[in-house]
Automatic annotation (TrEMBL):
GO terms for biological process: mRNA splicing, via spliceosome. Belongs to the WD repeat PRL1/PRL2 family. WD repeats lie at residues 140-181, 182-223, 224-265, 266-307, 349-389. The keyword Repeat applies. PROSITE patterns: WD_REPEATS_1 (PS00678), WD_REPEATS_2 (PS50082), WD_REPEATS_REGION (PS50294). InterPro entries: Prp46/PLRG1-like, WD40/YVTN_repeat-like_dom_sf, WD40_PAC1, WD40_repeat_CS, WD40_repeat_dom_sf, WD40_rpt. The lineage of its organism: Eukaryota, Metazoa, Ecdysozoa, Arthropoda, Hexapoda. Identified in the spliceosome C complex. Component of the PRP19-CDC5L splicing complex composed of a core complex comprising a homotetramer of PRPF19, CDC5L, PLRG1 and BCAS2, and at least three less stably associated proteins CTNNBL1, CWC15 and HSPA8. Interacts (via its WD40 repeat domain) directly with CDC5L (via its C-terminal); the interaction is required for mRNA splicing but not for spliceosome assembly. Component of the minor spliceosome, which splices U12-type introns. Within this complex, interacts with CRIPT. Also interacts directly in the complex with BCAS2 and PRPF19. It comes from Polypedilum vanderplanki (Sleeping chironomid midge). Keywords: Repeat, WD repeat. It holds the Pfam family WD40. GO terms for cellular component: catalytic step 2 spliceosome; precatalytic spliceosome; Prp19 complex. This is Pleiotropic regulator 1.
Length: 454
């Protein structure tokens, strides 16, 4: 028996297209490509009706109102126009007509109170709110490797960082002094999360381990086994005892915090899942991946609700707005804002032309993005206005290539920004108290193109 030769999908599709072309190629000379006048007129009318049907309706209504006004408000003074006699409305009746018409047609008289046929729409892009510029005020050294992650505890008294030296360090937020060092990971620590409902600190790393630390005893009390490769990111559900982790095995796993059970394995991404966030409302889990997609997940069913494919390059960061029902995703092409729960596109934030590793947003509407080359951009969330950008200072003695920003987070008040960087330092930024709208004005020019939906 002769074996059937297998072809790729691309070859089969190409052959199908060629067959279709050969089938209809004989009819091409018969087709009249020149559109006749009747079809052109019909096409124009259809397009005009689709685009301007409400305006046509308003014009028709205004014409009917004008005819009624002319009929009921006739003047008794005849005038001669050529050889014919006609009755014209008086000045008072014209004023009545103008006031009673829904949308008066433009006349040749130069009347200052004359209404336009189409009212001018106000600008759809609001002016951005003024934000004070941010400045560096503290640099903390102590790690022996790249600092990859940070998390602030709910009481806003301390924060934890994880680095490539396999150590988790706890720092006092007010003074910047080291409080505690936790060892146990055997590879780079890539993610941290502090529970707001329990005295627990969760960590994950490139050693495929997910650990739960009891901060009352400063030791590991649980391990969550299941990931097949490095675990890059994690998030805690705000109201449920649920932990979500994701990493290089292209999956996001949902864990019961207490029983260590793997509730769901969220599959669908085709490359590393670099960022995951959780919220109490739907969608309760949002993931960003190196496959250039953002997925919204149904936590109850453990399935993907929808996939956002607008990005052209890998999505390394997803961040939720603390007060608005929105989120943002970052990629080297653009930072995009979305509206929950369907993931409707809002606008592009263009200008941070590098690999964007991390983002953070505070309740005041300040969105910060950190790049792989050490650049930081500060945006107004509502308008997408980039009000500040600068290059983070590198620790003396470091190479220029060690300028990457790996993670960033605001403290609970939103007044301090913590960044972890490739020069093995932790930097803390705050707003410049001496700045004002006069010293740092808003240089705002609305960009219509960036808000185009596609």
């Amino acid at each position: 028996m002769e074996e059937v030769q297998r072809h790729s999908v691309h070859t089969l599709v190409f052959r199908s297209l060629k067959r279709s072309h050969d089938l209809f190629v004989s009819n091409q000379p018969i087709v009249n490509l020149e559109a006749d006048e009747k079809s052109e007129k019909m096409r124009f009318n259809i397009k005009a009706r689709d685009s301007y049907a409400p305006i046509f309706h308003r014009v028709a209504v205004s014409e009917q109102e004008q005819k009624k006004a002319e009929y009921f408000n006739k003047s008794d003074e005849p005038i001669t126009k050529g050889d014919e006699m006609a009755l014209v409305p008086s000045t008072q009746s014209q004023n009545d007509q103008t006031s009673s018409a829904l949308l008066p047609l433009p006349t040749t008289t130069h009347n200052t109170n004359q209404q336009q046929l189409i009212p001018k729409k106000p600008s759809s892009i609001p002016k951005p709110k003024w934000h004070a510029p941010w400045k560096l005020y503290r640099v903390i050294s102590g790690h022996l490797g790249w600092v990859r992650c940070a998390a602030v505890e709910p009481g806003n008294e301390w924060f934890a960082t994880g680095a490539a030296d396999r150590v988790i360090k706890v720092w006092d937020l007010a003074s910047g002094k080291l409080k505690l060092s936790l060892t146990g990971h055997v590879s780079t620590v890539r993610g941290l999360a502090v529970s707001a409902r329990h005295p627990y600190l969760f960590s994950c790393g490139e050693d495929r381990q997910v650990k739960c630390w009891d901060l009352e005893y400063n030791k590991v009390i649980r391990h969550y086994h299941g990931h097949l490769s490095a675990v890059y990111t994690m998030a805690l559900h705000p109201t449920l005892d649920i932990l979500v982790t994701a990493g290089r095995d292209s999956t996001a796993r949902v864990w019961d915090m207490r029983t260590k059970a793997n509730i769901h394995t969220l599959t669908g991404h085709t490359n590393t899942v670099a960022s995951v966030v959780t919220q109490a409302a739907n969608p309760q889990i949002i993931t960003g991946s190196h496959d250039s997609t953002v997925r919204l997940w149904d936590l109850a069913a453990g399935k993907s609700l929808c996939t956002l494919t607008n990005h052209k390059k890998s999505v390394r960061s997803v961040v939720l707005h603390p007060t608005l029902y929105m989120f943002a995703s970052a990629s080297p092409d653009n930072i995009k804002q979305w509206r929950c729960p369907e993931g409707n596109f809002v606008q592009n934030l263009s200008g941070h032309n590098t690999i964007v590793n991390c983002m953070a947003v505070n309740p005041e509407g300040v969105l910060v993005s950190g790049g792989d080359n050490g650049s930081m951009n500060f945006w107004d969330w509502r308008t997408g206005y980039n009000f500040q950008r600068f290059q983070a200072a590198v620790q003396p003695g470091s190479m220029d290539s060690e300028a990457g920003i790996f993670s960033m987070t605001f403290d609970q008040s939103g007044s301090r920004l913590i960044t972890t960087e490739a020069d093995k330092t932790i930097k803390i930024y705050k707003e410049d108290d001496e700045a004002s709208e006069e010293t740092h004005p808003v240089n705002w020019k609305p960009d219509i193109i960036k808000r185009r939906k596609y």
